[in-house]
Fold:
Amino acid sequence: MIEVSRLNGSMFILNADLIETVEANPDTVVTLLNGHRYVVKETPEEIVERAAAYRAKRGASPSLT
Structure:
């Protein structure tokens, strides 16, 4: 799970294991495997770093590079 922020500044927790794509167009849009989409303040690079750190913390292979 990673913490991300909506454009209005509110924070929420996102299941990093469900991330399918992260795009910048120009807002950052995170699409999950279930099709849900979230627009967040963080850059795609920040999302990837947080997801990789989360996976490393869990002992899983960081495959988001």
